[in-house]
Amino acid sequence: MLYDFYGELLTDHQKTIYEDAIYQDYSLSELAGQYNISRQGVHDLLRRCDKILEGYEDKLHLVERFLVLKEKATMIEKMTNDDNIRKLAKEMIEYGI
After folding, report:
1. Closest Cα to residue 40, out of 25, 29, 53?
2. pTM listed for this prediction
3. Angle value at C-alpha 46, between 41 and 51, nearest 5 degrees
């Protein structure tokens, strides 16, 4: 989820390798061969990306706020009997607030 919020703040090189590791489930060896860097280099890059993304969250708290708002919209949906409010809350939850 951190990548969804902050991934665009990584460099293109970091994004490419991170996406291949996470979304394509490539191994360190596969990534090392594909990008002509060592397995250790890939490992370090992935760890560095994780720390960068976590650092953005520590400063901005966008994921935390998103999760709180989603939880509150879910509570509103469950608590109301008004169909319009329930529909709006459900749309907020589905849209991702």
Report:
1. 29
2. 0.82
3. 125
